[in-house]
Amino acid sequence: MDTEEKRKRKLPAIKLPRGVIIAICVLPAVITGLYYLLRLFPVVMDWSAMYISAPIRGFLSILSSVYPFSLTEVLITAAIVWLIYYIVKTVMVTTHRRGKMKILSRRLLPVMVAALYVWGIFCWLWNSGYHAPGFAEKNGFAGGGVAVYELVAVTKLFATRANQTSQFVDRDENGRYMGNRREMFAASTEVYRKLAYEFPGLGGKLYQPKSMAYSRLMSRTGYTGMYFALTGEVNINTRMPAPLMPATVAHEHAHQLGIFAEDEANFIGIIACATSGKVVFQYSGYLRGLMYLMSALRDVDIDAWTEISGSLCDEVRMDWQENFDYWESQKKVETGIGFLDRILTSMTKTMSKTVDKVYDGYLKSQRQELGIRSYGACIDLLVEYYITRGLA
What pTM was estimated for this model as a whole? Predict the structure, then answer.
């Protein structure tokens, strides 16, 4: 078949009217622009989070729960691979043709429009919640700080309960924590059942977390899990120390239930663990909360900190130390080759700092003034919760 016949048999290209193309390109800018304009009005953002974001994210959770793997990872990986391919092809095309700038602009436009669509949708599905009244405000938490004696009382309570529950989790012959991840993931869908009686807004449907294939990379950057609004999935770093994994799962489930702020998700996750009636979650929640409380107490009452620290049982100390050692080990690379270790360790630190800086900037841009430090800001909520209810 000669070239002329091939040309005649080639399918005609689909050409959209210019108006349709303009509308497709302008629409994401309108969606995103409306978000940035309306996020100044908390009432609008709250309505959007409840009646637009929550139903859509719930539907996406149902769809993604069909797959046993992390759809989040698949989509992100596919996007990165395609972007690399597209960049390479764009370079090749623009290098061997005339009118390089015109060709480049035509190839960059679809990428920019697609990226703006993703960002605009993400803003309405997730970022809108950062600008709505938070869980604490809706549920009458006073805020404004706590007294030192209250902090001491709640810290002692958490130390006592961590000591108690640490005796009932599975351990090996050396006393090391042995958690069954599969059973824990399955049980996590019921971890908010009791807490939902006190806070009805937490009574939504939960779906099992997904193990992340990129867990090693997450450990190197210092992250334990993520909730991705565009798939509705809870994704967990399965290489993190096992004693704190249930509390991490509960934290990400809080996001799945529509708790946006990190300090509130931490608080809710810890309380959900403590009230779950499941000892694996109870111990993990008390241990996680104890770590935050002890960190705050050390700065204001070193004597009380020393006393409580001395009261911790061997099992709690072992799990605490394991967690510390693990995250310290992720800061350096050891291959046995001196110069290579130094290079890879430097790259790891740079990568971790860059990820932290980007995420910190993202949180601050969404009205989370503490940035990544907001993870530890759950202390006031924990103390107020236990003090006002006469539990400490």
Answer: 0.89
